[in-house]
Design goal:
The complex is a heterodimer of chains A (301) and B (461).
Chain A lengths: L1 H16 L6 E5 L2 H11 L3 E5 L14 H9 L2 E4 L9 H7 L12 E3 L32 H18 L4 H26 L6 E4 L5 H7 L2 E5 L10 H13 L4 E5 L5 H10 L3 E4 L12 H13 L4
Parallel strand pairs in A: 1-2, 1-3, 3-4, 5-6, 5-7, 7-8
Helix pairs in contact in A: 2-5, 3-4, 5-6, 6-10
Chain B lengths: L3 H54 L22 H4 L3 E13 L24 E4 L2 E8 L4 E9 L5 E10 L6 E9 L20 H6 L5 E10 L5 E9 L16 E12 L3 E22 L5 E21 L9 E19 L6 E21 L2 E11 L4 E2 H4 L17 E12 L2 E11 L7 E13 L7
Antiparallel strand pairs in B: 1-2, 1-3, 1-18, 3-4, 4-5, 5-6, 6-7, 7-8, 8-9, 9-10, 10-11, 11-12, 12-13, 13-14, 13-15, 14-16, 16-17, 17-18
The chains are: A alpha/beta (301), B mainly beta (461).
Chain lengths: 301, 461
């Protein structure tokens, strides 16, 4: 009798535990979102990142490998604001996966819960490659990441209700660590306030906004429009008159135009990781901002 | 027995209790999650508000474009009816052509003509096809797309008009209406996205440029990390090499399979195999008889085509913004069996006909710096020697079917294009064409423009 009770207890325990937990499969469009999903989801999620920090997320092919990943994904984690418009809609459409269709719980856009900068007042493609919902390069302001992290935690808790507590715990843990890190970064970057900088494309807007850097010029005259010789000439004369402290470049950018300008106006080029993996030091989201600020500080040291 | 009963009862209980227990814990967890969701929702909103206040307080960035409020739905003056308008995009295409031989007399040597879409097009300035595309979700279950092609000859054609399922489980998608068949690689690609101003000769000869029939397509994508997709189509079979048939049922069948993946971070590939079977009933084609008089012949019978295709794309570190190489090749082989009628409107002599023909192309396009690309393409076809019973039996001389005399058409094309933005492209193309049935060597020069306005399209791989 004792044995049968013990056996039944064992059975009960086995049944209560249920089948082994399947992980939530996440397809993240950028390495930053991949890193955030890993921070928040821990071992309950498996993350596939569609692009690397060395790629221009505007211009990605809807590769077969990505369609295959979209097929099995439980959650697509995208930036939104049309950053991935050239390829993500194809992945979702070709995936044959009803879980990740826009509007479903399995489709998550970081930009959805944020107020974006540079929402154009006039929508006309003569203004270059503009985004109707605002500038989508929102990951370079850590306050934005904090907001996205909260929304993603809720989404994970909703998709995988059995592990809701786990996600909430990880979410609040991340929130605490992130708030501390922001305070640290802001203290370290305080001397950078008001620093005049030249940017490449208008994709460091959030970084400049956060740290109070003063964007005095952009190498691209309009978003997505490469500079002409005339424009660069004009830029040289303006910048020689009032030189900036540095020229910001992203890891994925071609350095030619920035180096050319740097030689003429005698201002250093600082290459920022832009995304997780953009430099050796930017291993995760914390590393991304640590490294970004360290690199920026080189010009004031 | 007395020992078995309680054990059985326990086991039964074990079945019920934990599930009830699990349900209760599930409920609690769900409630907790919901509560947390609510909390987080507020936290998110407060966070967003704080961010907004911060943003308003701090001085605007000097270069920043004016920041507008997100339009609130209440303040939006659009009526609810127009708010659901589909995404609209319009492609304008046109060209200037300088062709050494009269394009009006162009016929491909050795192949039954596939219709008006084939050939080098007209000389001088031409308005090409203007493509108007409308698309939107229909409801939670379907989306719909229509592409109308308005030709320079003031004709409107429905290039594609189809619905597609968005909510079928297990990787299935059903498409229905008129659509470009999923066979081959280039067949599904709209003309504005071609890398050359025209289709490869093998598509011109075997598909009448591009195959689209009215029908349904079922596609299944495997749940594997390797991209594996299989599809089947059936329809009314009205597209060349088929014709509209007088009978009910499924008249054109196409099967295809694609596999694909990555080779490291820099390269990706896709390969495929296709099979197509269509029926032709009195499919007419123009030829000249042995006295150089025009005659109308026709074919009735079965047409079976199979093919393989492969595409490879490479970009340094996978970043296609600066440099990208794209290499693609396709091979198609077609067997037609049935009856050939000579001078259908006059003598109407009919007898058996059988042909086995094949063709391939290889092309390579290289974006050597942002916005600039060069490309080269080689086309080659083998008409074989069709078995024409009317000729074999001596009823007619081989010269009665000059267009079906054995030939190996080929062509070399080079192109150079410049894309000022994602929405515009200017292209120059030069082709040395040795495909004409009259044996004349043709030099074809073309300048082409492509402009896209409206919704930002996304292109397939």
């Amino acid at each position: 009798m004792k044995e049968s009770i013990r056996g039944a207890m064992a059975l009960l325990i086995i049944l209560a535990c249920g089948p082994a937990q399947a992980t939530v499969k996440i397809l993240a469009t950028t390495s930053d979102w991949g890193a955030l999903a890993t921070e928040l989801g821990g071992d309950r999620v498996s993350v596939y990142v569609a692009t690397t920090a060395l790629q221009d997320v505007h211009r990605v092919d809807a590769k077969p490998s990505l369609v295959a990943r979209a097929r099995t994904a439980d959650l697509v984690f995208a930036t939104g604001a049309e950053l991935e418009i050239g390829w993500l809609p194809i992945l979702v459409q070709e995936s044959g996966n009803p879980r990740i269709q826009p509007g479903s719980p399995g489709y998550f856009e970081a930009a959805a819960g944020l107020n974006l900068l540079e929402v154009p007042t006039r929508l006309d493609r003569s203004l270059g490659d503009i985004h109707p919902q605002g500038n989508p390069h929102l990951q370079l302001d850590p306050h934005n990441i904090a907001v996205v992290a909260k929304a993603l935690t809720s989404r994970l808790a909703m998709l995988d209700a059995g592990n809701a507590e786990y996600y909430q715990k990880r979410g609040s843990d991340f929130d605490t660590r992130w708030a501390q890190a922001i305070a640290r970064w802001e203290a370290k970057a305080a001397p950078l306030k008001g620093l005049p900088v030249v940017v490449m494309h208008r994709d460091q807007v959030y970084l400049c906004h956060w740290l109070g850097l003063r964007e005095v010029a952009a190498i691209e005259p309009k978003p997505g429009v490469p500079p002409s010789a005339g424009y660069l000439g004009q830029l040289v004369s303006t910048l020689t008159a009032s030189p900036p402290k540095l020229i910001l470049l992203n890891a994925y950018n071609d350095a030619k135009a920035a180096n050319w300008l740097s030689e003429r106006v005698h201002v250093p080029v600082v290459t920022l990781p832009f995304s997780v993996g953009g430099t050796a030091e930017a291993k995760d989201l914390f590393g991304l901002f640590d490294d970004t600020i360290n690199r920026l500080r080189t010009v004031i040291q | 027995m007395t020992r078995i009963l309680p054990v059985a009862a326990l086991i039964a209980l074990a079945g019920i209790v934990p599930s009830a227990f699990a349900e209760a814990t599930d409920d609690v967890a769900a409630l907790r999650a919901e509560l947390q969701n609510l909390k987080d929702d507020y936290a998110t909103r407060v966070g967003a508000l704080e961010a907004r206040i911060d943003q308003l307080e701090s001085a605007p960035a000097p270069m920043a474009a004016p920041v507008a409020q997100q339009p609130s739905p209440a303040g939006d003056s659009r009526s609810a009816a127009s708010a659901f308008n589909p995404a609209i995009s319009l492609i304008l295409a046109g060209n200037y052509a300088d062709v050494s031989q009269d394009p009006g007399t162009w016929r491909m040597a050795g192949f039954i003509p596939s219709g008006s879409e084939a050939g080098p097009g007209a000389r001088s300035f031409n308005l090409g096809e203007s493509e108007l595309t409308l698309s939107a979700s229909v409801d939670p279950y379907f989306s719909a797309t229509m592409t109308a092609a308005i030709t320079g000859e003031d004709e409107i054609g429905i290039e594609e008009a189809y619905f597609r399922t968005t909510s079928l489980p297990s990787g299935f998608t059903v498409k229905g209406g008129r659509f470009f068949s999923g066979i081959g690689y280039l067949n599904e690609v709209h003309s504005h996205a071609w890398d050359f101003a025209d289709q490869p000769l093998v598509y011109q000869a075997f598909m009448g440029n591009q195959l689209a029939q009215d029908g349904v397509q079922l596609k299944w994508l495997a749940p594997t990390d390797l991209f594996v997709e299989i599809g089947a189509e059936t329809g009314n079979g009205q597209a060349f090499p088929g014709t509209r048939l007088s009978r009910n049922g499924f008249n054109g069948t196409a099967l295809f399979a694609h596999v694909g993946g990555d080779l490291g971070a820099s390269a990706s590939w896709r390969a495929g195999a296709s099979w197509l079977e269509l029926q032709a009933e009195d499919r007419p084609f123009e030829d000249v008889n042995e006295f150089d008089m025009p005659v109308l012949n026709s074919f009735t019978g079965k047409s079976r085509t199979w093919g393989v295709d492969a595409v490879l794309k490479w970009a340094p570190t996978g970043n296609s913004a600066y440099q990208q190489l794209k290499v693609q090749a396709e091979y198609l082989s077609r067997r037609e069996e049935g009856e050939l009628t000579f001078d259908a409107e006059g003598l109407a002599l009919s007898d058996a006909y059988r042909s086995e023909q094949s063709g391939w192309y290889l092309q390579s396009v290289f974006q050597f710096r942002p916005r600039w690309r060069i490309g080269v393409r080689y086309d080659s076809l083998d008409s074989g020697s069709p078995r024409i019973a009317l000729v074999d039996d001596g009823v007619l001389p081989p010269e009665a079917f000059p267009i079906l005399l054995a030939a190996d058409p080929d062509r070399i094309s080079v192109m150079f294009d410049w894309s000022p933005s994602e929405f515009s492209r200017l292209r120059a193309q030069y082709a040395w064409d040795d495909a004409r049935a009259d044996g004349q060597y043709d030099r074809q020069f073309r300048l082409q423009y492509l402009y896209g306005i409206g919704a930002h399209g996304a292109h397939k791989y």
